[in-house]
Design brief:
Elements: H1 6-28, E1 32-35, H2 40-51, E2 56-58, H3 65-68, E3 73-76, H4 86-104, E4 107-113, E5 118-119, E6 122-123, H5 128-143, E7 147-152, E8 154-156, H6 165-175, E9 180-182, E10 187-192, H7 193-204, E11 211-215, E12 220-222, H8 223-233, E13 241-243, H9 257-263, H10 271-279
Parallel strand pairs: 1-2, 1-3, 3-4, 4-7, 7-11, 8-10, 9-13
Antiparallel strand pairs: 5-6, 10-12
Helix pairs in contact: 2-7, 4-5, 6-8
């Protein structure tokens, strides 16, 4: 039997330690199930998890019991709201998800909407999407063993969302179809997709759960200011009529301090920076 030199022995020991470390990291790292394969947030989360070398899998009804045993979290991004029956089907789908999470001891992450909480002891009139989200929230709170509910403001950036204030305005500016802006005094809170991905990622490692957080920048942007920012960044000169909504506009302020404190996040990306990134 060939005797190893000291240098070769050291190298072998180092390789074995490295391999052992990789195995330990793989075993201890969270492993994620994802729903909502065709959703905007899904495509961006997937890229982020790949970059972070976290194991993830698209959740399907036919996934085996043996496969499920190795996972720790389920991020439920699937949500439909185009048809009358979607509100009911969303809740039906969620009930299945909660049942599986409870059975396999997964922590459920549920992205919700920030637009349904109380404001000055009044409930803002809800649309079907918001009603569906709050019904799902209520079910999770009552029935899920381990969960995070994230009330997320308007997400932008990454693989650009086709819906929402920012992508709609960008399309109109590019096509030269923006002549007037109604309700230009409305205020919206935005969150950049990478900040949201970072929040998901950090929550996967948290052992304290059953919490509800508001997710956003914590700062409002007036629609008129947003349009002017976009025109400036895109170097477009165009005369636009800004029409003010004279009715009192309720502003729903998102308190993002709890999520920042919980995850030790100092700051989120500024809107100007995010806009420049998606338009570069």
């Amino acid at each position: 039997m060939k005797r190893l030199k000291i240098s070769e022995l050291d190298e072998l020991i180092s390789m074995k330690l490295c391999l052992f470390s990789l195995i330990i990291n793989f075993m201890s790292n969270p492993k994620i199930l994802l729903t909502g394969k065709n959703e905007y947030i899904y495509s961006n989360v997937k890229k982020y998890l790949e970059k972070k070398n976290l194991l993830f899998l698209d959740f399907k009804d036919n996934i085996t019991h043996k496969s499920l045993l190795q996972y720790t979290h389920l991020l439920h991004l699937k949500f439909k709201i185009n048809k009358e029956k979607d509100e009911k089907s969303n809740l039906t789908e969620l009930k299945k998800i909660v049942k599986i999470c409870n059975k396999y001891n997964f922590t459920l992450l549920f992205p919700s909407t920030h637009l349904h909480h109380k404001f000055k002891q009044k409930i803002i009139k809800l649309n079907k999407y918001q009603l569906s989200k709050i019904n799902c929230e209520n079910y999770i709170i009552k029935n899920s063993k381990k969960f995070f509910i994230l009330r997320i403001s308007n997400v932008y950036g990454g693989t650009l969302n086709k819906k929402g204030a920012i992508p709609e305005l960008i399309k109109k500016i590019k096509r030269g179809k923006i002549k007037e802006i109604h309700n230009c005094n409305s205020k919206i809170d935005f969150v950049y997709i990478d900040d949201l991905n970072k929040i998901f990622y950090k929550l996967f490692f948290k052992k304290k759960y059953n919490k509800i957080f508001f997710i956003g920048s914590g700062k409002f942007t007036v629609i008129k200011d947003l349009v002017l920012k976009l025109l400036s960044i895109m170097n477009v000169k165009r005369k636009i009529s800004f029409i003010i909504n004279k009715k009192k506009i309720d502003v729903l302020k998102n308190n993002v301090k709890p999520i920042k404190k919980f995850l030790k996040i100092k700051k989120f990306k500024k809107l100007d920076t995010g806009l420049k990134l998606i338009l570069s």
